[in-house]
Amino acid sequence: MIQKPTFMNRELGSGIYRLRCLKQNRGSALVLVLVIIVVLTVLCGAFLSGILLHRKFILREVNRIQTRYLAESAVEKCLWALEGHDGRDIMWRPAGEFIPLMDGHEAAVRIESWGGFLRITATAFCREESVMLEVLAGEKLNRENRDAITMTTKVSENLVVTGSNRIIGDVTVGNRGVSTSMIRGRPFSGKKPVEGEIHRDASPDMPFFDGRFYRSLIDACTQALSGGGMSLSGNPMDSIRQFDGDMVFGTGSDSLFELPGTFVARGNLLLDGSVRVTSPCRFISAGTITVQGNASLNHCILYADSGITVQDDAHMTAQLVSPSLIVIKDRARLDYPSAAYCPCLSETGRILGRIEIQDRAVFRGTLILDAPSGPESAADRTAVFTSVSPNAGVVGKIYTRGRTVFEGHIVGTVVTEGFSFYDWPTTYLNWLKDAVFDRPGLPESFCTPLLFSREPDLEIMEWITDDAGRSPLVMASANTSEGPDAHE
């Protein structure tokens, strides 16, 4: 007999069903809680890991910055010691010597002569971090370079200006001062002879300059050409490559130029086309050196027995050294802190030397024509001069132990024994025509090669490399002066 479910049975079945659902819901909630706990744990772990990693990065950056400051401090201490402190002088040349710094730290320093400048490398260490800084140091302009023109007046006791000549700044000349005149019927058309003070106390001698650094470089280059031992640098990273005849570098991706090195050619040397030299290198030639095309060089030294020519659109920062001839022409540009040095000695021993800035070329740096002085050299000095053509420009300093033929534009200062120019059929001595001299336009931070003073005041001219291998700082004010570039 089939018994129908009663009300009590129905209630009991419903309760069992609800109990089963409740147990299932409790199981689902437990899983959900566990999932939330796992997610929160992962998020918290990731957050804590991020904080720890960020803290690690911050500490590393703090250590790196502190190490960089130590390296900068080492560079400044080297400059201080080179100026005659701590028992050292300008000839101090450590090669990896450790010097003490603040809080018990120390840094390894290296100093080498780089042409007329000093190349200082400092490597500092702090909490497993190391930073290497490399700088180029020069000399601040001294009080003897306060004027637009300093003339020793060995030929005449006065300076004559004519044409559209303009002198902005003070001048030092002989006791007859500065006068104006006309040339071929054309009178002086400037505002006034000198837009500044006229000092009538010129000395018969040139202001102090000691060229021992450049003479030492010439001796080392000559020794390298003769096959002798290299004394240019004790840096083991600087490789030496020698070529028996002429040498042409004409590619833009030559790996030879990615690291510092010395290249010696016993013939002529040509840097042509789009060649790029990105590291400080030395190029030495027994013949001539020509840089042309779109060639680009960075902080290089060029020495040639028979002369150096930079032409076309070549763009470089370099020191040019030749015993007799340096020519920069066309649209070539040499940027600060470049230098050109000519000691005016030929192979026959005659006093012969020229530095010429021609066409629309621009030179930013220091030109030094350093002819021997004395009665025995007087007969040969007609072949000793520095010339700047009408459309050419200079930003910096011209030092000529001889004549200066100046018809261009200079933002800076000229120190010379005398001026001249030729207008057929006459040579005018200590006359200036259609030239512009702007002494106030030269930045106060401008530096020259060393030993224009007996007690040099040294300054960092440029950071060649920092710890990342970059060249972060340049003297923008000198490189962007509007004077010489106004011709373009």
What does this structure look like?
- The protein has four helices and 32 strands.
- By secondary structure, it is α/β, with parallel strands linked by helices.
- It has two domains: 11-127, no CATH class; 143-232 and 323-460 and 474-485, no CATH class.
- Strand 1 and strand 2 form a beta hairpin.
- The model is unreliable at 468-482 (pLDDT under 50).
Low-confidence blocks of residues: 468-482
| Content-based structural category | alpha/beta
- Per DSSP, the total helix count is 4
Count of distinct structural domains:
2
Shape: elongated
Which range does the strand content fall in? 35-45%
| Relative helix content | 10-25%
Mean pLDDT: 83
Q: Mind telling me the C-alpha Rg?
A: 35 Å
Largest sheet: 23 strands, mixed
Q: How widely separated are the two ends?
A: 122 Å
Note the topology.
Layout: H1 7-82, E1 95-100, E2 106-114, E3 117-126, E4 129-140, E5 149-151, E6 159-162, E7 166-168, E8 171-172, E9 178-180, E10 198-199, H2 212-225, E11 239-243, E12 247-249, E13 261-265, E14 269-271, E15 276-277, E16 281-285, E17 288-291, E18 296-304, E19 307-310, E20 315-321, E21 325-328, E22 333-342, E23 353-357, E24 362-369, E25 384-388, E26 393-406, E27 409-423, E28 426-429, E29 431-433, E30 436-438, E31 447-448, E32 458-465, H3 476-479, H4 482-485
Parallel strand pairs: 5-8, 5-27, 6-9, 6-29, 7-30, 8-10, 11-13, 12-14, 13-16, 14-17, 15-18, 16-18, 17-19, 18-20, 19-21, 20-22, 21-23, 22-24, 23-25, 24-26, 25-26, 26-27, 27-30
Antiparallel strand pairs: 1-2, 2-3, 3-4, 4-31, 4-32, 27-28
